[in-house]
Automatic annotation (TrEMBL):
This is Metal-dependent enzyme. Coiled coil: none annotated. Pfam families: DUF1385. It comes from the Bacteria. The keyword Membrane applies. Keywords: Membrane, Transmembrane, Transmembrane helix. The chain crosses the membrane at residues 50-69, 81-98, 105-124, 167-189. It comes from Halanaerobium hydrogeniformans (Halanaerobium sp. (strain sapolanicus)).
């Protein structure tokens, strides 16, 4: 594996996935507590390589690719992601259910709608805690890789510049700026522009100016335990092993 190649990652409630341009490696714990590895070859899109060199456009492309990968995962195992469909159902009812007339049913629904996030957070509180720990381990593994694999993964920071929480922060920031400037653009074009600008801001903001997003990231990338670090280390070792490419 070329050390100059960038890698990305994703955290789950039971493991970590790291990926580069050729493959994605997920190291996870099964129900018995055994560490398993799942390896998939990444599909290469020639036109995407060209688009990834264009500022703003590359950010939009990256987000759509991430959403597409997530959508395929959801559709592959819809029962596991039942809460996603519940959120979509509530959103559809909220936006298209009724003409705005206040009724007892609508009042109860609105109350349920706004309490839904709190219910899901409470219901998945243990899973969320595990995801955040694996998220921290994922960042530590990427930082270790980007520092030429010097030392040990456990000694690296769980804060990373390219974290999705940083992207969300900048996206919201550009939303606010756009509202203040009252940009006269089509809403779809405007949102795509904000996505692209948020990606560029995340990519080029100096580390010295990342103190705000760093504070946020300390909540979404928790300090991992030993088992999370072991999973992240396993995923990275397999990702870097070029011999694996011959078997996928």
């Amino acid at each position: 594996m070329n050390k100059n190649e960038s890698i990305g990652g994703r955290a789950y409630s039971n493991g970590v996935q790291l990926m580069n341009s050729s493959k994605a490696v997920k190291a996870y714990y099964n129900k018995a507590g055994d560490l398993k590895v799942d390896i998939k070859r990444s599909r290469k899109i020639k036109k995407a390589n060209f688009l990834k060199k264009i500022p703003v456009i590359r950010g939009i492309l990256s987000i759509f690719i991430a959403l597409w990968v997530f959508l395929k995962e959801v559709l592959k195992n819809p029962i596991k992601y039942w809460f996603i469909f519940l959120i979509i159902l509530f959103d559809l009812i909220f936006w298209f259910g009724g003409n705005g007339e206040v009724t007892t049913f609508r009042a109860l629904f609105l109350l349920s709608y706004f309490f839904l996030p709190l219910f899901l957070i409470f219901y998945f509180r243990n899973n969320i805690s595990e995801v955040l720990k694996f998220h921290g381990a994922e960042h530590m593994a990427v930082n270790y890789y980007e520092n030429d694999c010097q030392g040990q993964i456990k000694n690296y920071s769980r804060i990373h510049k390219s974290c999705g929480s940083n992207f969300i922060f900048y996206f919201i920031l550009f939303q606010i700026i756009g509202s203040l400037l009252a940009l006269d653009l089509n809403i779809i074009i405007r949102q795509l522009l904000y996505i692209g600008l948020a990606y560029e801001a995340m990519k080029y903001t100096p580390d010295s100016l990342l103190f705000i997003v760093t504070i946020i990231q300390r909540f979404v990338a928790k300090k991992p335990d030993k088992k999370q670090i072991i999973a992240a280390e396993k995923a990275l070792n397999v990702l870097m092993d070029e011999k694996v490419d011959n078997y996928i």
